[in-house]
Amino acid sequence: AHRSPALTLKNIKDFEKLGVKVIIAGAGLAAHLAGVVASHFPLPVIGVPLKGGALNGIDSLYSTVQMPPGIPVATVGIDNAKNAGLLAIQILAVADKNLGKKLIEYRKELALGVLRKAEKLEKLGWKNYLTKV
């Protein structure tokens, strides 16, 4: 956003023409990319603050989450691109039932994973569990 603003704007316009519905923008330090994109792209923008610099990503988090009224950026945790992707899928699933079904299945698998870990913990005990995780 800072070093090549013309290219950033060109890409945003190209994304619109291509029918992109959600943009995920990751940036570190001052982390203005998501905000710049959101100011030019009329659909959802999800910001991923990235670790780096003296503040280890806290500056990126604040820069991404503290947008002025009228230009929102959904923001996930520092270095949490996975949640950004899942949030984008949730947004798209509003109009795509197939994506919605896949999300439901994904969430069921998450819950089963927790149950499997709990069973393993119960079986091994916490000391053995921690050495085998």
Tell me briefly what this model is.
This protein has six helices and three strands; from the N terminus they run αβαβαβααα. It is mainly alpha-helical and about 130 residues long. It has a three-stranded parallel β-sheet.
Give your account of this protein's structure.
The protein is mainly α and 133 residues long. The protein is built from 6 helices and 3 strands. It has helices spanning 5-18, 33-40, 58-65, 81-93, 97-124, 126-132; strands at 23-28, 45-50, 74-75. A 3-stranded parallel beta sheet has the order 1-2-3. The chain is flat. The N and C termini lie far apart (41 Å). 20% of the residues are buried. The model has no long low-confidence stretch (mean pLDDT 95).
Question: Which bin fits the share of residues in helices?
Answer: 55-70%
Uncertain spans: none
Average pLDDT figure: 95
Count of helix runs: 6
Specify the biggest β-sheet: 3 strands, parallel
Q: C-alpha Rg, in Å?
A: 19 Å
The string of secondary-structure elements, in order, is: HEHEHEHHH
User: Which range does the strand content fall in?
Assistant: 5-15%
Helix-strand makeup class: mainly alpha
The termini sit apart by 41 Å
Record field, number of beta strands: 3
**How are the strands ordered across the major sheet?**
1-2-3
Shape descriptor reads: flat
Which helices and strands appear, and what pairs or packs with what?
Elements: H1 5-18, E1 23-28, H2 33-40, E2 45-50, H3 58-65, E3 74-75, H4 81-93, H5 97-124, H6 126-132
Parallel strand pairs: 1-2, 2-3
Provide the descriptors you would attach to this structure in a database record.
133 residues, mainly alpha, 3-stranded parallel sheet, 59% helix, flat
